[in-house]
Specification:
The protein is of the alpha+beta class and 152 residues long. It has one domain. 54% of the residues lie in helices and 22% in strands. A four-stranded antiparallel β-sheet has the order 1-2-3-4. The longest helix is centred in the first third of the chain and has 45 residues.
């Protein structure tokens, strides 16, 4: 009898873990897409004079950013919410860094280095040139009649 209870519990836990893993993977994929779109928008808006600077900014930010699952919450058996956090530079620091880069002459754009500019720009706005962890996005899912989780 104890064996059956143990096996039943193990089966339920593995199903939850499998569902949770699926939700985490789907949420991270959505968050990565959203973060890339955010960076593209920032780059296009501020660095329209240079496609090279836009690409350099996006590469720099992607290397210095990390998306993580903060929490998965199940609401019953057919609804779930997944919270994602972002570790990156503050919006103020990113905006100021973009402003400085936008003032670089076209003949010097390929020499501009976001990593080298980070510390002086951070000092200019009174922030630390360190990544901050902050809430990024919340994704809600519902389970369809076929048993698959779908974004709401």
């Amino acid at each position: 009898m104890k064996t059956l209870i143990f096996l039943g519990t193990a089966l339920i836990l593995s199903a939850c873990t499998s569902q949770e893993g699926h939700l985490k993977k789907a949420s991270l994929k959505q968050a990565e897409k959203k973060w890339e779109e955010t960076l593209q928008g920032e780059a296009r808006e501020s660095l329209s004079q240079s496609e090279w600077l836009q690409t350099a900014y996006m590469d720099f930010m992607k290397k210095n950013s990390e998306l993580e699952i903060d929490e998965v919450q199940f609401q019953g058996e057919d609804r779930a919410t997944v919270s994602v956090t972002l570790s990156s530079f503050s919006p103020l620091l990113r905006k100021t860094l973009l402003k400085v880069a936008s003032q670089v002459g076209l003949d010097k754009t390929r020499r501009f280095n976001f990593a080298e500019a980070l510390r002086p720009v951070a000092g200019q706005v009174g922030e630390k040139p360190e990544k901050e962890k902050r809430p990024f996005s919340v994704y809600k899912y519902s389970k369809g009649p076929d048993g698959l989780w779908r974004p709401e």
